[in-house]
């Protein structure tokens, strides 16, 4: 496994959905940052199952505990170990599936890779693993907010065939996003999404969707060409989320059909520095932030575990009809919102430190 | 900078477009692999400027030289240093742009990050940097072909508004792809793409596009959850290519609008192992290859340097009209094809070694 | 901080001596390895304070808990999270020292680096941090023992001025080592060491020492030149242990005074392969194991916290007389034995996997 | 292989002694640093064979060429590729040894690890590989000198049985060190060392030795506990040098025999900050620099290739008498001096950037 992410600001996650607990070790967070546990808990609650009728009824209280790295509410500079105990384990739900690899799930590939069975493999490929990312990402986010004033807001921009209009990126907040259980700030689209998800759920089926995300307040200069470009690390971070199928920065795939004269973001004066008239770049040029709002989208496939009957085969190759059990969301995107925010925060916090190393040393000595 | 990519099979690249040379050090390639220099050169030639009327007239012979790691045509297990000297440098072309950051290019962000000017910064953000990736990627590819029989083929699936039909993934070859200068195997679409690119070039403008890529022969089990999943590393690799804007695995963004019962790839018996009836997954489930053909798409924006007049501002904030000079492609996708193949090869070679470590040790002792 | 060690077989540690707990996440251990909790606990007990009159009276039960990665006693291939709760915290003992940096301790450097005070900084620089290493190292050790039959045994070869004779490396066991509380298998030397330590303790003083270590059963071929050579990683691992001052492989510093004709280990036939007549190399040549017994020594300084009065200055530069409180060992080496073993195991497990990646792939296809 | 060293300030080396060339890519050096090629060349010349009667007569001009990353004498922030072509290749010298593994050399272990023969394997294990380190280390050194005023000076403190007195660490310079070909600033010891080496050479034998090194001007705060402690990384760096057998920081192995009250470095006021009365710590406490002079020693074994007849066996197990040919130094330490300096510089440059990341960000916002 490769459960560590980041170069200077790093998280290492652990935990199966059906083991004792899930958590993360965050290493590299500078000392002296005031850390709010309620802020971490708030993000965990946004990810938590059972929060609305749109999500799985699996109930977990998901209380965060900090085992190290914090004293008097401030970071010590040492690793922060974050732990959430599992309580609502129903391994029995999965026993029926032990002989049948669930289609488009990780059962088959985990068995081929690790030689371990479905029940155990499912534990690490489970969406529950993302809980650790959300906890760690909240630490990154608080660091970014405290030191740079960076704000990160994700929202559902598509669920099934329903797409939302583009929000006002300069003013969108999590409060607005959370105004509807589906987490789409376009209320009209939100209603249609809710209807689509409810219909799919009633049919024992599921739907895919898209989560979009913005990062405000990122200064120009973050991103490490040529392989750890800001957009490259965001792409890795987002595709590492279970069920993600695509990543698009700014104009994304629509850039393919455009001409350079349309797509180029012309420079304009913006206070003491340069801004751009448009933002097809999504805030990143040459893999480095340009001071504009960073925005990107992440596509998610429909939840593979569905109640609807599926004609497939078991590990021995015998034809079976599978009717998925267990407690799963009919559409993952509302709960994926804080996960996308968390992964964005991890990428930014790491690149912030990496740029700080360079600028601090040299600019102090050679002001330009 | 972060110029090293990979954990066990790694490349470290170097070189500016206007310095003495560009190259890569490939470390971690196992010993005893027969390496063909003509095969490396062939991929470099497919990336080389000036190969057709669709590409920049900058002429470079791009002859590869191997400085270490090879003896009697076989790898020694030590680092392979690959070097291509620059010959056709026209730094003068860029002097006029020294005071004006080119819109949607990396001039501005490099200056903000490194404090160095456009001419130099442009050197590393230049497409010429990808030459090093192609050379290194060809080593990875030869390793994969020799040991596993893996084949990697990329092609242009969109240029401007023209989209191609899906080719037969089981039988597509580079020869078929190269049958047309635009590198689209759908000949009807290829003709329309050529017309669109020619028109854009005539208008001193540029076009975006999409490169798609398949990997055949990858066994089940490659990919390192949870952060170095196969699709996550492919996404990082692809977004690190200059001008890339998006990545999509298998169904990609279209998965968002689908239901689980449509999207799930039902298992079927395929010889001695399990296959899938459909392949919306793009050959990857839970971040691990499942033995099916891996395929994905990469969106590229239109080349930002265009001859067409653009109203922008210089670094001092003064309004200027910029007419780009220098020698640039009107559409990057035909030459991006070998770059996409190279990056895919780097990702796969690294994950192949990482899985080999696990399977070798344990399966030898605990056959399952 | 940099709390992760290893490339494929990795540990990430966390925890302050005076926080809720100390632990480690072990990532990269192959699946299917039977893991014995009592074996982990046994090594923790050998490191535990309060086990004999030679060690600090701080009492900790140090019970290990595994939070993830294990099912039915076998590893799942996913991260193993190991946790030990702290119980016997006496932060009050350290309050008196908050204004005075303890000489040769990390108080001053932690404050300079992180800007945090002595009490907190002391937490991570404390010997208690090594508990996490011992737990993780025991996992590595069990992996090495199960798959390769590797055995690792460390012992005290010097305490203060008392040096022990070289034991029979082929037959030394932990049982023999533990036959005396000072962990020196040379019983005559052990008695002298005990007397020296007891005398130092009575004078409120402390002593340094040397821990030697052997690794039996390591096949030829482990170690990754040129920077991750087996001896280079052992040196890093050992110097990262608190209070370590030196590392010596095989002949170590005595090699300096020798001639090549004395020092060279001449080859001899040893069953089906080559062995060496002598082993000044300590089992490593060119950074790679040669199949002989690996052995090395680690020097430790005397415990810096002593009760004896010391004339030093506080952070404000005022002269003070410091009499150390808190509970500290008069000589660290007996308890450092399992820590040295643990770090050796981490190095070997990682290099075993790295070599397996290479040999598996290539030797399967190109038998030599 | 693992040919990359460092986290932020990194080098990747390549090259066999008998291939086309040897070199390094230095990535992560901040932009805007004035780089002197003559300074790099000067260090290469100090490492170069044939510089005195004490060294191998192999003659190499070793001219450095910079292929990238530099413009108008200043670093661009992009990778610096450094290349030295090989000219004086005598592979024939080694042919006789192709069937016989040279005792205590890497022939046997390279063959066991990579499956490649002595001639090729010897290429990467050769001392010539250190040339790349010296070139890269000189870049690191110039960075450290420019930004921090750090000075690094190594010298020969032992050759064979001859040991030198401790020099005045505050005032030792490379000029003083180079006053004698053996590079020992204690002239009386130098003469004895020269005699000992000359005698050994005359007997077709070789001698070991010790190189000591100091680093002046390192501020308090460099080093990343718990695994990338300053001393731990120095130990790895030094043991990765061919023929190194041991590492000792400050008091080193002599600390073992001392008591805490002797060994503790009591604090004193030193200008605006705290200094220490003694420096047994060698400038590092808890793995972090404390602002005092850093000093350490590295033990080297006698050159294993000797002309003197050795009774050993060939790969097939047949007894042979081996008389080494090829051109080798009778004692490696005079030429190891710039290698030790280079590796120290690489460690310090990397840790400088890693600490800068932390201090820049947080101290700017939370001055302490």
What's the tally of helices of chain A? Answer: 10
- The CATH superfamily of chain A appears as Chorismate synthase AroC
Task: Using the coordinates above, name the CATH class of chain A.
Answer: Alpha Beta
Which structural class do you get from the secondary structure elements of chain A?
Answer: alpha+beta
Query: How would you sum up the global shape of chain A?
Result: globular
Percentage of residues in strands of chain A: 15-25%
Q: What sequence of helices (H) and strands (E) makes up the elements of chain A?
A: EEEHEEEEHHHHEEHHEHEHEEEEEEEH
User: Largest interface, counted with CB-CB under 8 A?
Assistant: C-D, 116 and 116 residues
Mean pLDDT of chain A: 91
Rg from alpha-carbon coordinates of chain A:
21 Å
Give an account of the 3D structure:
- Four copies of one chain form a homotetramer.
- With 368 residues, the first copy, chain A, is an alpha+beta fold.
- Chain A has one domain (4-365): Chorismate synthase, AroC fold.
- In chain A, 32% of the residues lie in helices and 21% in strands.
- In chain A, the strands form six sheets. A five-stranded antiparallel β-sheet of chain A has the order 1-2-3-7-4, covered by helices on one side.
- In chain A, strand 12 (267-270) and strand 13 (273-276) form a beta hairpin.
- Chains C and D meet through strand 1, helix 3, helix 4, helix 8 and strand 11 of C and strand 1, helix 3, helix 4, helix 8 and strand 11 of D.
